[in-house]
Here is the input.
Amino acid sequence: MAGEKILVVESAPDVRDFIVHRILLPNGYVPLTATDGAAALACLRQAGPGLVIAEARAPDLSGLALAGLLQQDDLDIPVILMAADWPPDLARDAMRAGVADCLLEPLDEALLTEAVGHALEVASGRRWRAHQRAQRQGTGNARMEQLEVVERLTRLAREMAAVLDVDQMLATVVQMAVNLVEADEGAIMLYEATTQTLVTRAARNFDDPTAQNCRTPSEDPLAMQVFTTGQPLLLDSAALQRRPAAHPLVHALIYVPLQSRAHLIGVVRVDNHRPDRPLTAYHQRLLQTLADYAAIALDNAFRYARTEVERAQLENILNEMVDGVVAVDFNQRLLLVNSSARAILQIKPPDVAGRSLEEVIENPDVRAFLKGENQRGEIKLDDGRVFNAHSTFIAEVGRVLVMQDITTLKELDRIKSDFVNTVSHDLRSPLTAILGYVELIKRVGPITDQQAEFVQRIQFGVQSITTLITDLLDLGRIEAGFDAQKEVTHLATVIEYSIEGVRAQADFKHQKLDFHLIQPVPQMLGNPPRLRQMVSNLLGNAIKYTPDGGRISVEAKTDGNAIVITVSDTGMGIPPADLPYIFNKFYRASNSRDKYEGTGLGLSIVKSIVENHGGRIWVDSKLDEGATFTVILPQYNGPDAPQPPY
Ligand code: ADP
Here is the structure.
């Protein structure tokens, strides 16, 4: 290793010269010489040689002692000792002192040259390995530090994610920011769109150890600059000295933007008041990472807060609703019972969410609705109250029942029906008397032709009123459900009886009236007189609204589980504009109003009867070509009934 400095500690000039001139210089080493111990130590301190060649025994500081000192100070400088003899004690001490080589005097040139080369090489290898070790250690330490920072940030992110209250979150973030970069102060400012300003929402001040929530408009132009540009800002003491008025006590300052899903939402600021704790680009990056985590966590907290407000509003609306609302999940466990439902169903326990339907609600009708057995209908309570109930299936939730109190409406309806019934009934008696006396007029003596015509008109008018009253009474009875009793009925027989009842009218108008039983019609559960009234009304209309010589046909067939009856005619038909209203009470189509007598109640009665039997009715018609009324009724699948004598 040419160029290496080698210290020769030797009092004898001839030996010194031999070493310097015969060995060191020719081999390219840089010789340093000392004649005594003091000079040797001084040279060691100042010149830092790579090897020492010294006398093993010297009067003031022996080479052996020098080697011991170097070892003691942990200085990796190899030592070659020279001695005229090497008794075992001296050789052992030399080895213990870590001497590189022991040479016998007089010195052999080749041996010394080789010893010098070897000692330098060994020392160099040792130093290199030590250096590698140190480097490895150094890299490991840096990695460990990085890992610690990552762990710390992850921990902070986890802590943030656990906070859902916005104010608490803001104070937490400020505290974390200050702790993370070991700052003295910190603040978080959020942008308010309404005022277009940054508002300080949490701050930790120099003399206050914890961050506090606040809501003060920020007048910091640097914060606004960072918010507008989206670029972080680091001001060290040199930069701050150029603007002392703005931050007189601050020695270092960092602003980082808070950005959530591509939107800037605010700025985080930290600063230090002490010159011995500078804030660097490293701190800025740390703070930015924290701010990025914080922005996500804040966004979640804001969303949670909004959801909470909406949830509370919804809960208030549901609770303040007059209608009762009950919701169950798919396992019939209660999800919600609002205040009205509690009052209606007299539910006492305060918290019923999660409990089973059967355990909490006794009313069998309510249970049936919540199980989906009924979807629309009425619920009658023991105390006489009646509720209109509607149960709806909601995907991923379960079933919701809404109950409206219709007790008053029911009562009004009952009063109305009573009134109509009473009035109709009371009107019918005097009308019967009028009709009787009008009949008698002709019998008690001769009347003029004009008087006879008047009498006929009176008879006709009274007849019309009687029909109207009868229809009204019928409709009242059907709607009130007075004819609710049902029995197993042969519909084909009912139709045949109805046809026989109107055949005379059809014959009178020379109309062809026939009945096709397309398939054998099964039995149904029904009220035979009302079913007969239904068919008769349809046939009566067909005859009435079909001109002389027309054709009326009735068909019955089975379709799946239903019985389908159609009554068709070749009459005047119904104008398309009137079709949607034809089943309304008192409605009469525009083409029949002035030409035919009628009350406009016949089809309302038919529709009520059909619906009372769980069926549906509709009409198809083309003007001047005829009309077809179709009725669908459910068939009965129970045991057979005897043929009734209708
Ligand atoms: P109305 O006593 O007037 O016959 P309905 O309620 O029985 O009352 O019928 C309502 C209206 O429907 C009738 O006024 C008539 O305009 C129309 N309509 C009913 N049946 C037929 C039909 N077969 N052909 C044509 N129009 C009909």
The CA atoms of residues 27 and 585 lie 131 Å apart. The chain has a mean pLDDT of 88.
